[in-house]
Design goal:
- The protein has about 475 residues and is an alpha/beta fold.
- The protein has helices spanning about 15-25, 40-45, 50-65, 80-105, 165-170, 185-195, 215-230, 320-335, 365-370, 385-390, 420-430, 435-440, 450-460; strands at about 1-10, 30-35, 110, 115-120, 120-125, 130-140, 145-150, 160, 175-180, 200-205, 230-235, 235-245, 250-255, 260-265, 265-270, 275, 290, 295, 305-310, 350, 360, 375-380, 395-405, 410-415.
- Strands 1, 2, 3, 4, 5, 6 and 19 form a 7-stranded mixed β-sheet that branches. A 5-stranded parallel β-sheet has the order 8-15-9-10-11.
Length: about 475
Amino acid sequence: MSETAFDIVVVGGGPGGYVAAIRAAQLGLKTAVVEREHLGGICLNWGCIPTKALLRTADGYRMMRHASDLGLAADNVRFDIDKVVKRSRAVAGQLSKGVAHLLKKNKVTVFDGHARLQGGGKLSVTKDDKPVADLTAEHIILATGARARILPGMEPDGKLVWTYKEAMVPASMPKSLLVIGSGAIGIEFASFFHEMGADTTVVEVMDRILPVEDPEISTFARKSFEKQGLTLHTSTQVTALEKGEDSVTCTLEGKDGKTRQITVDRVIVAVGIVGNVEDIGLENTKVEVDRTHVTTDDWCRTAEPGVYAIGDLTGPPWLAHKASHEGVACVEAIAGVEGVHPLDTRRIPACTYCHPQIASVGLTEEQAKEAGHEVRVGRFPFIGNGKAIALGDSEGLVKTVFDADTGELLGAHMIGAEVTELIQGYAVAMTLETTEAELMHTVFPHPTLSEMMHESVLDAYGRAVHF
């Protein structure tokens, strides 16, 4: 074991940690990363990336089942769940190796082990309770991420009750499934298993699914999901799980106090996350924790001098791209890069990769009004777009919210085919502080789905052409 000095040590090699480390190295700082499991973190290994691989399979399976709509024939369509899972894991593995290559390329030292703060800019690293190294650094960035929240009485057992990890590697496809929670994670898994043939039910304690989205988009999504055959229960909580040999009987209670029971093969618990704040030595520092998440200022600084925190370990939104940009901003501020500014979380796009896809950025119509804005709202349906009709995917909506006085784009909300790719156009517009005038005068190519973004802006000002 050796004592090693660095300018910056990053604890955690996820999308926040490894990006922060690479940027620090680019700026000439001697940098190390300590990672106890897999480079790339949960997102790359057990979250964002492998779930998208699964959902890609579901998309293909759905298209094959509806091949006749396109004048094609695909008979006896089936899938091999082992191969589906194997492909998903291979995608994650390939990218994890890529992160290791990037860190090596940028001369970032990687320590395989568990880091604990010792105070005074010191950390100890252990592996399997054996010492690996003692590190010192003027700046320490905590990027330990988060894990699934566990509800009392609904603890995952890896067989009948799953977290996202078990849901990504099913040994067989369940015939029926209950998903607890209708946020992005819950809805994505519900969409995947439903598309692959499982009778899927979603339970949400709030009064609507996807509760952080614009209510109009939530309502649209609910109608679409129910039309597909998903069962959705809102204003409902799961009060008990009774496990059988190969099934779970779930007790559901509505806000009226009435209960019902359903029996399913498997249950997925997707009710949020808790920060990984345990056993990292916070007690040796002045770092403050609020409801399992580390408290920071706009520059990611904690109450302990020289200690910073980024990503899911800190406040919302809990998104990989937010973590990456936080890491860059944090490091550039440490290095004194000219022009760096804190991350504006209002301009961070959010995406849900269900079918139909959902994407948003900025304020909802409701939030804009609550903030005191007089608003102009534009809408354009996918059914009015030639490309969407040609794709055979014409169910969707683009909604834009503007300040009526200044023309500032306050928010954009979309549901439909490929909206997770389209939303970045509005994110760029908000970053550039674009008004409706610039968006109206921007030429959008034809025929594309992006034309709907233009038409929604036009509609907010009574100028929509194609609807």
